[in-house]
Design brief:
single chain, 99 residues, alpha+beta, two-stranded antiparallel ribbon, globular
Length: 99
């Protein structure tokens, strides 16, 4: 089981190993999209890049970055991930809507 801590929202969620971060956030009422993302998101298919999150702790407990993430996040900090592409396999702390 994985414990996901959403720092800005001061909420925690429990997920089975291998759970998708975007889906767990949505199931727990966590808004991961900025205004632009709300209007233009692809629904979690890994095509738009609007579900960016910053991993504050536990990055080693996530699935490896996908090719799309590597291209889309090339100029972002290494702790930035696309929530729709991330599978959680252990405790992690997430900052939604990073600046």
């Amino acid at each position: 089981m994985a414990n996901i801590k959403f720092i800005n929202e001061e909420k925690e969620a429990i997920a089975a190993d291998g759970a998708n971060l975007r889906i767990k956030a949505m199931e727990n009422g966590i808004d991961i999209y900025t205004l632009r993302g709300k209007m233009m998101n692809c629904g979690g298919y890994g095509q738009c890049g609007t579900c960016i999150v910053n991993i504050a702790e536990g990055i080693e407990n996530l699935s490896p970055k996908t090719d799309f993430e590597n291209r889309k996040l090339k100029k972002k900090p290494t702790t930035y991930r696309l929530a729709c592409q991330v599978l959680v396999n252990g405790p992690v702390s997430v900052i939604t809507k990073p600046k």
